[in-house]
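Propose amino acids for all 135 sites.
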């Protein structure tokens, strides 16, 4: 099944971006809590799933260079990798969408651009702030 990955840059730290992204996804019906496990699913190291209580989880900038977190809506999920961006500062997020309707993919892109990417005056020179990849 084909997937889209949005690469989104923000000038904020990972903790702030996670909070902002949680707001974006909750507005379209996605939750950090997996209905089967009742937990938040996170990857603090590649390939190592960790389960956390949603209310007790925090992402501290600098604690992990990269962290993956999954949002859920029924059988659909969105996987986001948060990475500190050493070259220009801030956080780069890789938002992976698999099997969603095009209208939902487009709405997610719109919300990420409006709520995560900073105002144009704060863009780094010659740095991509939003990219789309398809696999």
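Proposal:
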């Amino acid at each position: 099944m084909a997937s889209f990955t949005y690469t989104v840059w923000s000038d904020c730290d990972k903790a702030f971006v996670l909070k902002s992204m949680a707001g974006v996804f909750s507005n379209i019906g996605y939750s950090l809590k997996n209905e089967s496990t009742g937990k938040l699913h996170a990857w603090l190291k590649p390939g190592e799933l960790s389960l956390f209580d949603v209310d007790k989880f925090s992402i501290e900038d600098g604690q992990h260079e990269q962290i993956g977190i999954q949002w859920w809506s029924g059988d659909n999920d969105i996987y986001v990798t948060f990475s500190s961006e050493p070259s220009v500062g801030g956080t780069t997020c890789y938002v992976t969408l698999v099997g969603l309707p095009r209208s939902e993919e487009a709405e997610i892109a719109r919300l990420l651009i409006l709520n995560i990417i900073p105002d144009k005056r704060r863009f780094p020179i010659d740095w991509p702030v939003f990219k789309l990849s398809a696999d």
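The chain is about 20% helix and 35% strand. The mean pLDDT is 91.
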